[in-house]
Amino acid sequence: MSPRGSIRPGLLLVLRRELRWMRRRPAMPIMTLVFPLLVFGVLAAIFNTGLPTDLPVAVLDQDRSPLSRQIIQIIDASPDVAVAERVQDLAAGRRLILEGRVYAVVMIPSHLERDVGHGRRPAVTVFYNNEFLTIGSIVSRALGDALGTAEAGIALAARVKQGESPHAAVAEITPIPVQASPLFNPTMNYIHFLLAALIPTVLQIFICVTTAYSVSLERRSAAGLAVLSRLGGGLAPAIAGKLLPYTVAFLVTLGVADTVLFGVLGTPFGGDWRMLVLADILFILAYQMLGALFALIARDMVQALGFAGILTAPSFGYIGVSFPTMAMGTFPQLWGSLLPASWYMQVRIEQTIKGAAPAYSIGSLATLAAILAVITALTVIRLLKMRRARLSAAMQGGEVVA
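The structure corresponding to this sequence follows.
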């Protein structure tokens, strides 16, 4: 009988040993389940409304006419912005922007109504804070649409007053009407694309760091990896048994997060769930193997965790969600193409929001599998090299190595 019971060396023995380690180290289940779900909960609470609305703006009305009041009403009626302040001069408006109390100042010039009545084109000026690109673009678009609506209304009223029919006046104002049909996320809901992208981006950090930490624990003793290999009866079952509990835990974590995302928050899912689950598995395994590789090439645990953080923390900027990949330079495009998260996000977006046929995701899925294979091969090569070095050192020391 084996000294560890009836279980012979193999994957099951390593798996049982790893589960005992996880019970003795509360940090492991916390890093695989508690912390990721806690972060997802915080992110879901932040993006719960889906769209930022009623962003505060200030108005400087130098005309104080019925027309200027009508323009202010149109601006305030926009769902994206709200007139929160009335200022007496631009200095006061600038101060409000600097204090963060408003995101824009709309200046309506003097004699606006008179100039419009005389056929002139007075300018309504908008000063907005574009330091935060998302807020700046929303405010700029909302104010532009509101002022465009007001301008169209004024032009329409003027033509009708001159005797044109409303239909002919509309045709003159917009001779070529444009019908814009946003696809896949027509409401610009931040839950549907930003939260859906942040979930795997955050999870990859936990996957890589947890794996690097777990494998680094094996390296604390000189014989740690050798014992693991003997318990597994070989490298493959040893690695599989070591990583399997965390693979399952992270799959559960991602499954819970996606259940909330697609079930509770209403993110559309129009694709094939089997393709998404397969991508989930490849994604988790790729970052597990990266974490293991970092633990094997690093000098110690601190360095391994540093490698994991350096790779995963900034990766959100390279996957093409917050900034278009085609607009990036050569290096970020190349770097992004090497990240498993980039290809996983393509599959995830295609199989959720876009509702694409599975055939559209096969290329990205194959690339993700190829990256996993390369990382796995590098990890195995490193393990074999370490084993040869250990055997050589043992032979030179006159030891007998089993």
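The longest strand covers residues 55-61.
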